[in-house]
Amino acid sequence: MPIPRIDVMLTKAESSDDGVLSESPEKKIKISLKDPAAPGMIQCFDPSTLQKLGEVKAMTAEEVNEACAKAAVAQKKWAKTSFAERRKVMRTMQKYIVDHVEDICRVCARDSGKSKVDALLGEVMTTCEKVSRVYEKRIF
User: Fold this and answer.
1) Residue 101 near residue 17 (C-beta atoms within 8 A)
2) Where are the beta strands (DSSP E) in 1-140?
3) Alpha-carbon distance 106 to 53, whole Å?
4) In whole angstroms, what is the distance from residue 32 CA to residue 20 CA?
C-alpha cells in the first residue's frame, strides 16, 4: 500500500539558511515578547541569534478551550479508526519527516537555539523511532 504524500508550505526564512542574520556583539539587542504596536501578538525570536522570527497570535482562554473541545471530538473519531488506518496516518507523518529532515532541523534550530545536529538527534530521530515502534507493535 503506497504511503500518501503531504506538503507543508514554509516561509522563506524557514526554507533557507539565508534567513539567519547576525549582529555585531557590541550592539545591544532588546527583545520583548510584547510589542505595543502589535497587541494580541507574541513576538518570536531565535534564542541563539536573537533574530526576530515573526509573531503569532496570543490565544485567549476561550480560544484555548475551543481548541481543546475540538481535540476531544477528534480523539473520539480517532478512537474508532482501525489499526490499518492509524498506521497509514503514522507512516504518512514519518514519510514527511524523512523527506523534509533538513527543513525540520533548520526550523527546530531557530526555534530552540539548538544546533541542527542536536535537532536531528533530539527531535527527528527520536520521533521517527517512536513512530516506527508504534506502527510495528500496534501500540495505541
Assistant:
1) no
2) 41-45, 52-57
3) 12
4) 19
Q: How many CB atoms lie within 10 A of CB 115?
A: 14
The amino acid at 122: G
Question: Which CATH topology does 12-17+30-137 take?
Answer: Aldehyde Dehydrogenase; Chain A, domain 1 (3.40.605)
Helix residue ranges per DSSP H, the chain: 12-15, 61-79, 83-99, 101-112, 116-119, 126-137
Grid coordinates in use for 35? 510589542
* Domain residue extents for the chain: 12-17+30-137
Q: Which residues pair with 43 in a beta bridge?
A: 55
Q: How many C-beta neighbours within 10 Å does residue 92 have?
A: 14
Q: What is the pLDDT along the chain (140 residues), one digit of tens a residue?
A: 688 888 888 777 677 765 555 554 555 567 788 888 889 999 988 888 888 888 899 999 999 999 999 999 999 999 999 988 988 898 899 999 999 999 999 888 888 888 889 989 988 999 888 888 876 765 55
Report whether 139 contacts 130 (CB < 8 A). no
